[in-house]
Amino acid sequence: MTKFIQNFEKKVKETIQKYKLANKKEKIIVACSGGKDSTTTLYLLKKFGYNIEALIIDLHIGEWSKKNLENIKSFCKELGVKLHVIDMKKELGKDIHKLKTRKVCFICGINKRWLLNKKSRELGAKKVAMGHNLDDEAESILMNLFRGNIEFGLNSGPKVLMSAKEKKFVQRIRPLFFLLNKDVKKYSQDMKLPILHQLCPHSKYSYRRQIRTLLNKLSLEDSKVKSKIVKWFMEKQPELREKYASKDSVNYCEKCGEPCRNVICKKCELMTYIK
């Protein structure tokens, strides 16, 4: 085992322990996409001895989805991990990826989060492990800031904060939270994990892609700019939570019954406009 692999795995373990992300008795669903981040998360949680099952949402995006699904199925079989495949088209009754709109990533993201929370709860999971890394978090902070919605990230972190009374939210954890994207990529390649190193065909239209390009350019001047952004935001969170406390109340969607911020959740609101 190389020094890089040792240090990478040590950092993931330290994040899990320091932020009390999980214990080995509770059931954890690992949200899989077939990409390097979620596959690395799946592999490490299994290696560390956690009680995990995997879940992938089949997005029906041609060969890209088929290859990712094949990789996850074979890898879960190799690891001895139970895999749940959720068909987005069947669940929603609509194929959102045939929409001729540049907002398809936004629509897809909302529906994936809705399905992930609902299905993980139905499967009896106490936590959902996400593959988000440091780059992802820095991007999200800037996206919310530039859109004037900085309060949207006030509960984010290695462990997404939630009300103890809220039983319909399955808590999300992010073991790779402090790892850079390039280091996750190197680890996955060094470990020869079965990964399709190809972005979703729709992602070229996403706002996140634009922010990612900006951050990568800034990183050429300051290699620590991403970690500085995340550190700054984490330090500001207590103040922001106090300021926006009134906006953080939980309601239940009048249409689907799932938890949301408004009378109707974003998923149900969006689906009424999709024919």
What can you see in these coordinates?
With 275 residues, the chain is of the alpha/beta class. It has one domain: HUPs (Rossmann fold), CATH 3.40.50. Helix content is 48%, strand content 10%. It has ten helices and seven strands. The chain has helices spanning 3-18, 36-47, 62-79, 88-92, 104-122, 134-146, 181-190, 207-221, 225-243, 266-271, and strands at residues 28-32, 52-58, 83-87, 127-129, 171-173, 251-252, 259-260. The strands form two sheets. Strands 3-2-1-4-5 form a five-stranded parallel beta sheet, sandwiched between helices. Strands 6-7 form a two-stranded antiparallel ribbon. α2 (36-47) crosses α7 (181-190) and α6 (134-146) crosses α9 (225-243). The longest helix is centred in the middle third of the chain and has 19 residues, at 104-122. It starts with a helix and ends with a helix. The model has no long low-confidence stretch (mean pLDDT 91).
* Mean pLDDT over the full residue set: 91
CATH architecture type: 3-Layer(aba) Sandwich
- The termini sit apart by 53 Å
Biggest beta sheet attributes: 5 strands, parallel
List low-pLDDT spans. none
- Whole-number tally of structural domains: 1
Question: Which strands sit side by side, in order, in the main sheet?
Answer: 3-2-1-4-5
Indicate the proportion of strand residues: 5-15%
